[in-house]
Amino acid sequence: xGKEVAxxxxxxxxxxxxxxxxxxxxxxxxxxxxxxxxxxxxxxxxREEFLNWxxxxxxxxxxxxxxPGDYFEAYESLVEEGHDEIASIHMTSKGSGAFxxxxxxxxxMREKDPDVHVEVIDTRNVxxxxxxxxxxxxxxxxxxxxxxEVVSIVRQMVPVTxxxxxxxxxxxxxxxxxxxxxxxxxxxxxxxxxxxxMADGEIVPLGVARGRGRAYQAIADKVEETLGKSKARIAYMxxxxxxxxxxxxQLVESKVEVVESFVGELSPALAVHSGPGTAGLCFFPxxx
Length: 288
Fold this sequence. Notes:
Layout: E1 6-10, H1 17-23, E2 25-28, E3 31-34, E4 37-40, H2 47-54, E5 62-64, H3 68-80, E6 85-90, H4 98-112, E7 117-122, H5 127-142, H6 147-157, E8 162-166, H7 171-175, E9 192-199, E10 202-210, H8 212-227, E11 232-238, H9 242-253, E12 258-265, H10 268-274, E13 279-285
Parallel strand pairs: 1-2, 1-6, 6-7, 11-12
Antiparallel strand pairs: 3-4, 3-5, 8-9, 8-13, 9-10, 11-13
């Protein structure tokens, strides 16, 4: 046996740097193509600088998932550090090619070194929902669990981890072609805030609210309704909207009992699609 199970995920999981470090989670950066420039998510471009530019952008940059070579390189690096079991945790395969690319890298690793075991997982989710799965996997790994147990924890989380967010506008999702089944919200009037979530790996509309205050109230109600009597673990997330997400946090925590929470900011590769001003959360029941 090598060292504990290694946990690898994408930069788009948007996990705060301190948490990544503390839990030894490795990330692989997405690509952002801005005109002729190729940027690496959270490597050559950081959140604040990117959002300041995005507000002024006339043409949206495009994003691309890492390729098989990027994942293979990351797996090799982990093997060199002494790991022979790797949990590779990715964004919904319906919204990105990351999962498929990681599967190719997994077979490359199998050919190179059959003693290394890589499990590639489709979280069917995005952002800090994917982030939560990586966090819980890393905690299990550091507690000494084997790959099968770590993977089992993530798979149990997939159906019960939920995202709800609202944005100033759906313009960015629409321009970036990531609108999913929420196209019917596009014609919304000014100050109508769309609520979106994920269902079966795709972006779905969860309704609209007039103004941010009511949107946050609606999010809090949906969290309460989904959890029932369960306590929650919640990651609040935003794109350049820290004060807004604190308002959401207060509302939610007046309704449900939260045993653990933190605030994370979306990575630039996700902010491209949600746009500045996004606020939302990813949550799951504390007792699964």
